[in-house]
Amino acid sequence: MANKRPDGDGLVRKRSDGRWEGRIVVGHKEDGAPIFRSVFAHTQKEVMRKLHSQIETYRDVELTEESNMTLGEWLDKWLDNYMALTIRESTMDSYKTMTKHYIKPYLGGEKIGSITTADIQQLYNWLRENGRVNEHYEKGNALSDSMVRSIHMMLHQAIDAAVRERLIVKNPTEGTVIPKNNYPPKQILTEEQLEVSPFDLSGGQKRRVAIAGVIAMEPEVLILDEPTAGLDPKAHQDVLDMVVKIHEHEKNIIILVSHNMNDIAKLADKVLVMDGGKLAMQGTPEEVFAQHVKLAEIGLALPHSAELMRMAAEKGLPFDGNFLTLDDIEEEIYNYLKKD
Length: 340
Known about the structure:
The protein is of the alpha+beta class. It folds into four domains: 10-63; 68-164, DNA polymerase, domain 1 (Orthogonal Bundle); 183-258, no CATH class; 266-340, no CATH class. The chain has helices at residues 44-57, 71-83, 89-107, 117-130, 145-164, 191-194, 203-215, 233-250, 261-267, 285-289, 292-298, 304-314, 326-339, and strands at residues 10-14, 20-28, 34-41, 221-225, 253-257, 271-275, 278-283. The protein is elongated, with a radius of gyration of 30 Å.
């Protein structure tokens, strides 16, 4: 085994390219060989200033051989060796997705010891503007603030572990600016509402409470399976209004599973029709509901407005086109009557 050079031991030299290099020992490999950290400058005075700063940074530090790992390599090791038995499977899947899609493409190949707070901040800024893997019809490639916060929390935890394992001295996620929680204004319950037992809530109220509980987790994708089934008309509309407000505020993706074509026509930007577990049709509401014969074969009716106007057209009235909502047919009928 080679004789260990003491930590903090360093040298200053002028390189053949004219630059000055300062180098200190920050740890040792298993065979005793030193691990160096270097700084460079155009003048001896500047390199000495940088070297003294490095000496203070690495004072009383003994890094291990793994300090040469890339961030991507460390994240893989952290997930497999440190987290596999301590978190739920769904959380592990989420961490792996964030690592694969949001961190590795940007910083995965960088040595973990060379990553700075500025590098991490640039990552967060880039993710907010360009991080979404699949372009969103409204938000483009911008990633939600809640997802950037989740990435930060995972990355901070992973790099904290790297500090404890003596791969690096300081966690570069500290000092970054992350998006703040952007919660909608809270509705304050009245004294009367506070006295109501959860068991006395109506079906619609219970449904809204359940959705609110999921929203508190800040999901980027919200899947609602028949959220209005079995509700009276008022409760039905209350739930739909809540869904609309959630989407307007959170700008998230909402997948609504429903047999109510009126709701689909009113709310959906894109419609996918399933038949026997297979995708039978897809397109905008206008494109899908224009194929009323195929929908009927599948067992789905048109929205009430579209069906009314189709029947009117069959009776000889000059209505041609897709009329998916009451507002659509109101305008069309008004224009027809106005001509007469």
